[in-house]
């Protein structure tokens, strides 16, 4: 090995430039050669003074080609400036530590190829000044394994999120209902969780809104969520009251998840014709309402426990809500953060919604949907305000809904549950439709209301109520009675006089249905006004 002349190193016996190695130098060089890593020793100017055989093998140089040259010969050219700065910083604060911790470091072989490395630095104090020992390790295989693993993980995460989105489903577009939604996966693990929401058209202008959260993370929570969401959707389609749906879901959760699994859930029914929202919450965070005239408030709901706790009587509450109001539902990931008080975070959310909604003036908030506040922009504002840092949050679901406008016209009449009332009901509806200009619907509507009222007075008692209303999209007629018995379509034989009424309703109406209503029920049918069933003055 060739070195230049110089004084000895009193601490380690290294002769930094002597042709007489001596016993101490031989021992040091022997240790250097047995090191598992490439060892490069440089002085405080960055000049290479010693290397071992591993350095020759790793970088492809003979050691005589390296001694006396700047250490940057082993560093890709694009890193030279940064490398010199790292050396200078180390010289000023010398200690055993990695070089460029947290950075991707690369070495340069003689043949010009690059490879990833890790470098550990140690100071050597000598009589001639500071020397720096650099242990260089090739981490090509480890980096390749890691890349195969920050790729396998992404594939698993993508598959898990795809599964969750499939289980969540895609809520339908509900005519007359403007919505904006966001789902953010959790930042930890695979990102999947138990959040879900759903929109269910209930007919006659009513809409069901579901929001829920299965406690926990991972595929198990997502699988339970998918089953509960499917059950909730099917139950909601029956038209049952919110408290009855939540009570039924309690049993579903007990069967699916066991006694240790908790699920929060909130179910609302929006009734634009009545200007009401009915809500039942099973331990879910409160929904918020932003009124068209400004101001944000919590939507009142009886306090209850999550699903899965046990035999608890969940209650519902109906609240008058102005047409055009904004409804916000969300899961706990939006406001629950480590080290924060949930009441403070809820206040923060209320203030953020108030600021975002107040960005539109009163005229825009109360006018047509086309000029209403941009719900997509409001959703983005809320996320930016509540979750400014994208790291460290649970999965988040957010749903904004602008309540539909009130009917353009509505009228109601009550009749005794007697056979004579059927003719009176037909006459009332015919006069109403003529006054509204629906000349082409009078005959069909009169026939259908006759069939529905006949069922009501035959099986009901007390009084029968007819309500007719229309929006820009549909004309709806409802017949409500006090009987809880729900009518069912059936195929009548040739010699039967009954059994054809609902088949006739199904044939002539564009949509129809039955929903429970307190102690009774309401049977309704609708005509689509977006095509040929517009009022006469509009047909002109």
From TrEMBL:
Organism annotation: Kitasatospora cinereorecta
Positions of the PAC domain: 101-151
Protein name from the UniProt record: SpoIIE family protein phosphatase
Keyword line: Hydrolase
Keyword Kinase tagged: no
Record's keyword annotation contains Hydrolase: yes
Domain PAS: 24-76
